[in-house]
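User: Um, what's this?
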Amino acid sequence: MPRLLFLYKTLFSFLFAFLQSASSFVILQPSVIPSSLMSTTQQEIEVVYQPDSDFLEKKGVFTWPTWGCGVSKFPWTYEESESCYVLKGRVTVTPTDGRKSVTFGKGDFVTFPAGMSCTWDVTEAVQKHYNFF
């Protein structure tokens, strides 16, 4: 009888400890898991080299504001996605997280993904139309 009592106490202690630890876990359904946690691939910088005028007109590029800078090298983080059309210059953008570097220049259309940190290496003074989205 004492041995049976010992087994019951041990089993009860184990069950009690298990229930306490299990109550601290949260099980998420797939519909509430953020897509950023489910995806293992990162968006790359997309370059459309020398797009035609129809492409640019459909995007409304020439109504976007402009920005420019001289030859320089600086860090940048994209809080939002950005598309831009380069009016002049040449740039190499190198992401800090291992994504592919890209080089682009006058006449190219480039889209940068939100959340990406990178280094801009402006080798020829750049002027661009840009749009955050």
